[in-house]
Amino acid sequence: MSAVQQKKPIVIAGPCSVESREQVIETCCRLAACGCVDMIRGGVWKPRTYPSCFQGVSDIGLEWLAEARKETGLPFGVEVANAHHVEVALRAGADMVWLGARTTGNPFSVQEVADALKGTAVIVLVKNGPMPDAELWTGAVERMLAAGINTDRLMLIHRGFMQSGAVGYRNPPVWHVALEMRRRFPQLRMLCDPSHMCGNRTGLAATAQKAIDLSYDGLFVESHCNPDAAWSDAAQQVTPERLSEILHGLKWRRKESDTPAYMREMERLRLEIDQIDLQLFGLLSRRMGIAEEIGRIKRDNDVTIFQLSRWEEIVDNMIGRAEELGLSEGFVRMILDAVHMESIAHQNKVMND
Ligand code: PEP
Ligand code: MN
């Protein structure tokens, strides 16, 4: 048995919206009966795009959530977007509050929530903002930390990012942004919200597994006693029993292993990767040196830096080899774009020497 302990993944589940006392109690009791949920989620103030949509049942919903906690023993949390929400949630005894994507995107609201949370002991979850970068998300975390929410009760939720024309996802995940947040805040646990990423039921399991393989600490997922009849986000909600099936089908991997064979193999492969990275950057540096030489020749002959046909030839040539190299076309394009930009910068540098 390895001495590296596997931390138990956190599962937070519940309806998108709290709709009625019966719906909350039934959903929560069925979730509790499945035995694989640590906490209940439910929205009572819903940030809907259109005013004609169901806006949430408001304060009364918290009483139903508190009653569900009494019935099931499961703690509960609710989305908050302003100081009033925080006060009502705390008065109802909420164990957790979360900031939704739209709130994280608005520093005024984040600050208002942070101020209202000062001196409290609730768990706080911060979803990523709408834009696919780490900045607004980081700002929201900094405001929470400054309000005294310490890192053992502050967590992050990656729920995907808004993107027009997204295929296959409602809010496509941008994994590297979430991983960047992990780098910036290594003490914070990171959950994945596959429901708002997918916007459908069929992608939930694969998306959750992807997050787990990237060593996420748990899931934040929507579940409803009668998903088809849900008043919001019907298409992405699953019954508690279906959720349980999905959860049982997931493979939670260990974050580390200390068996000698694993450590030896990893050490060997990581050394190889380090060496390849060194070679890669050494080659890139040589390539830039040649770009500077070309820049000097162009300068001496009064020729412009950018020559479209030459660039197209380079791109076509490498894209043509992508498959043979086992690389995706998108990746090859992205690398070439970055190399090209750096190359132009180097040529520019010598142009006016
Ligand atoms: C929610 O979790 O119900 C919600 C509104 O999510 P998001 O902020 O991710 O859109
Ligand atoms: Mn929802």
Describe the structure.
The chain has helices at residues 21-34, 60-72, 83-91, 101-104, 107-117, 135-146, 175-184, 194-198, 204-213, 240-249, 260-300, 308-325, 329-351; strands spanning 10-14, 39-41, 76-79, 96-99, 123-127, 154-158, 189-192, 218-222. It has 2 domains: 3-249, Aldolase class I (TIM Barrel), CATH 3.20.20.70; 260-351, Chorismate Mutase Domain, subunit A (Up-down Bundle), CATH 1.20.59. An 8-stranded parallel beta barrel has the order 1-2-3-4-5-6-7-8, surrounded by 6 helices. By secondary structure, the protein is α/β, with parallel strands linked by helices. The model is unreliable at 1-5 (pLDDT under 50). The chain is built from 13 helices and 8 strands. 51% of the residues lie in helices and 10% in strands. Phosphoenolpyruvate (PEP) is lined by residues 16, 43, 47, 79, 100-101, 127, 159, 196.
User: For the residues shown, what is the average pLDDT?
Assistant: 94
Bound heterogens, unique: phosphoenolpyruvate, manganese (II) ion
Number of helices: 13
CATH class of the largest domain: Alpha Beta
Distance between the termini: 64 Å
| Broad structural category | alpha/beta
Outline the biggest β-sheet. 8 strands, parallel, barrel
- Helix content, binned percent: 40-55%
Strand order of the largest sheet: 1-2-3-4-5-6-7-8
CATH architecture descriptor name of the largest domain: Alpha-Beta Barrel
Overall tally of structural domains:
2
Task: Write the CATH fold name of the largest domain.
Answer: TIM Barrel
Beta-strand portion reads: 5-15%
Order of helices and strands: EHEHEHEHHEHEHEHHEHHHH
Radius of gyration: 25 Å
Shape: elongated
Sequence stretches where pLDDT stays below 50 over 5 or more residues: 1-5
